[in-house]
Design a protein that fits this description.
Elements: H1 9-20, H2 37-53, E1 56-59, E2 65-69, E3 79-84, H3 97-112, E4 121-126, H4 139-144, H5 150-154, H6 163-170, E5 191-197, H7 202-206, E6 210-216, E7 218-227, E8 231-232, H8 244-260, E9 268-270, E10 274-277, E11 283-284, E12 287-296, H9 299-319, E13 323-331, E14 335-336, H10 339-351, E15 358-361, H11 366-370, E16 375-381, H12 397-415
Helix pairs in contact: 1-3, 1-12, 2-3, 3-12, 8-9, 10-12
Bound molecules: zinc ion.
The site of zinc ion has 5 residues, from loops.
Length: about 425
């Protein structure tokens, strides 16, 4: 195995900070919403770097930015490294960015070393991963696997500008009429790799710079409503109440217990919103709604837990003479990373003297969509306190460099595969 010592970690980190200045407020938060003027400035900066390295730069019709370094055989499918450079409102400088600029650093090292490779190497910055403008993320990666419809293109931002218009106006190369030409098939990408900050506290806790992702958890979203009878807090006796609040409290505690059970390790359940109607300190509520986000890397376990939660909701509601309803939202299956790529990344880590630590991803990434058409591998880099999507988001220069080295060695092997 070839060990790379040639990553220029200062160059890489300086680029991350320079891109992080675009759309950055005085307080330090970064706002580069997809297809906005700030996003355009960010793209232009990255395009400049890609050209400096000698990459051919293009946009596809989903607004994905792609830099390409040719190998000896242009007809072979490329090895692709990517992520995104759009941000949430008032977000950080590392989420997505380290994956794209890490890929750029790899292209530059390949160039400087005059590394001999057959397959082309591509770096991709996917359009609107965060969904912070059209409220609907993973746009570019859903696009290339053929999952974008007219509905997605017609979505409007708060200024009533449609995504269709925003795409058309972003670059002369993008024509939303021609999105079908940019849909890829199962032979179009040899392998896809993504490096991302962990967005969680595990690596920091383990005192590790990087970890290899084996599975990306799939979320199941729902809204639960439990209804009873509204009443005056002072005049309705306790034994005559049909109060949904204690029922919901019981259900939420049940969900916590269920997901905390070691038998269901890796399942996580989160109630992020609880609303009471009509909502007053002296009113017994008529109904309570709460959100539930249930995630797991094991689909059958997630489905089983969902069934148990449904039964509990039914049981508690019946006991208390209440009505209940579940409105289902997103229901996405978990995704496994390609074992052979996970293994390759682990081998590269060992060769670099790193512990070949594996972990799961609780958050969704472009990689889980690309996995539908290509082999996919993913690497996490430690981030401070697990904080992301905030101005305090931070990853160390050395940790990003370690991740990029792991990626470089794996990319080198893949580039000369048949
Ligand atoms: Zn991200």
């Amino acid at each position: 195995m070839q060990i790379s010592e040639t990553i220029n970690s200062t160059r890489l980190f300086n680029r991350i900070l320079e891109l992080g200045e675009i759309g950055r407020s005085e307080e330090g938060g970064v706002t580069r919403r997809a297809l906005s003027a700030e996003d355009k400035k960010g793209h232009d900066l990255v395009i400049g770097w890609m050209k400096e390295i000698g990459m051919a730069v293009r946009y596809d019709h989903f607004g994905n930015l792609i830099g390409r370094k040719e190998g000896k055989q242009a007809d072979l499918s490329p090895v692709v490294v990517g992520s995104h450079i759009d941000s949430v409102r008032d977000g950080g400088r590392f989420d997505g960015v380290i994956g794209v600029l890490g890929g750029l650093e790899i292209a530059q090292v390949l160039q400087e070393e005059e590394f001999d490779h057959d397959r082309p190497f591509e770096v991709i910055a996917f359009c609107e991963e965060e969904g912070s403008r059209f409220n609907d993320g993973l746009f570019g990666s859903r696009g290339i696997i053929g999952k974008i419809t007219a509905l997605d293109l017609n979505r409007q931002d708060e200024q009533s500008i449609s995504r269709y218009e925003a795409l058309r106006d972003f670059s002369d190369e993008i024509d939303p009429e021609k999105i079908n030409e940019s849909v890829l098939g199962v032979n179009d990408i040899h392998a896809y790799l993504e490096m991302h900050i962990e967005q969680g506290p595990s690596l920091e806790k383990e005192e590790l710079a990087v970890g290899v992702v084996t599975h990306i958890a799939g979320p199941h979203w729902m809204t639960v409503t439990v209804s009873g009878e509204a009443g005056h807090a002072g005049t309705v006796p306790m034994n005559l109440r049909k109060d949904p609040i204690p029922a919901v409290a019981e259900i939420i505690l049940y969900i916590e217990n269920l997901c905390t059970d070691p038998l269901h390790a890796e399942t996580v359940g989160t109630v992020g919103i609880v609303e009471t109607y009509p909502g007053g300190s002296n009113i017994i509520p008529e109904k309570v709604t709460f959100s539930l986000d249930l995630r797991d890397i094991d689909l059958s376990r997630r489905e089983k837990l969902f069934e148990e939660i449904q039964l509990k909701i039914e049981e508690v509601s019946k006991e208390r003479g209440l009505k209940w309803e579940i409105n289902e939202g997103m229901r996405v299956p978990p995704v496994s990373c390609t074992p052979r790529l996970t293994k390759k990344l682990q081998n590269s880590m060992e060769a670099l003297g790193l512990q070949p630590h594996t972990m799961i991803s609780g958050a969704g990434h472009d990689a889980m969509l690309v996995a539908e058409i290509a082999e996919m591998g993913m690497l996490f880099v430690r981030c401070r306190k697990g904080i992301s999507h905030q101005r305090e988001e931070w990853a160390d220069q050395d940790d990003i460099a370690q991740g990029t080295k792991v990626l470089l060695d794996t990319v080198k092997e893949l580039l000369n595969e048949k």
